[in-house]
Design brief:
Blueprint: E1 37-39, H1 47-53, E2 63-64, H2 69-91, H3 94-99, E3 118-126, E4 132-140, H4 148-152, E5 164-170, E6 176-181
Parallel strand pairs: 1-3
Antiparallel strand pairs: 2-3, 3-4, 4-5, 5-6
Length: about 180
């Protein structure tokens, strides 16, 4: 079985090179459109959600933060880069390579489909040292229609398939970590 968690702790992006990009449509470069995204206030989340996002007691020291358009554009760029890197890493797994020889095998049971439209939920926080961190949840709109709930509450659950992935990004350092792609439900 494919592990659905791949740590990209060594994955870096250059924070100074920000392109105005769109994640709301297919994961391709376009004009910044935030209509398929929501910045969800950390203070509005229940405690159990905060613990899930930020392990242990770390969540107790975090403070709510906001995001400007430049930071949102950087997060959209990171979304595309994470998907591309994750899919490349999946291609290197031996059993996946063997499975691709079967014409009935659907690789998008395990890979994130960049051609789908995604709704992006962002929960920004500031750490005690001043670093701005963002918990990002991407949900394809094929399986989850955009509604007020997606704009106000984080999507909770597992086994949504590769239509749901999440990661954390440190906007201060540009480090991306803890990418999690749900497996085949």
């Amino acid at each position: 079985m494919l592990p659905t968690f791949i740590n990209l702790s060594r994955y870096k992006f250059v924070a100074g090179i920000l392109l105005v990009l769109l994640v709301s449509g297919p994961l391709a470069a376009q004009k910044l459109d935030t209509s398929y995204s929501a910045v969800i206030p950390y203070s509005s989340l229940p405690d159990w959600t905060r613990v899930r996002m930020w392990a242990d007691d770390h969540h107790l020291s975090l403070k709510p933060a906001g995001l400007d358009k430049k930071e949102i554009a950087a997060i959209f760029k990171v979304c595309r880069e994470c998907v591309a890197d994750y899919n490349k890493r999946i291609d290197t797994i031996p059993w996946f390579k063997r499975s691709m020889e079967d014409t009935s095998f659907n690789p998008y049971r395990y890979k994130v489909d960049p051609s789908l439209q995604y709704f992006v939920q962002m929960v920004p926080v500031t750490e005690q040292n001043g670093d701005k961190m963002v918990f990002v949840i991407c949900i394809c709109t094929r399986d989850f229609p955009v509604n007020d709930d997606l704009r106000k509450k984080t999507l909770e659950g597992i086994d949504f398939g590769t239509c749901h992935f999440q990661f954390k990004v440190d906007l201060t350092t540009g480090k991306v970590f803890d990418i999690w792609v749900d497996g085949d439900a």
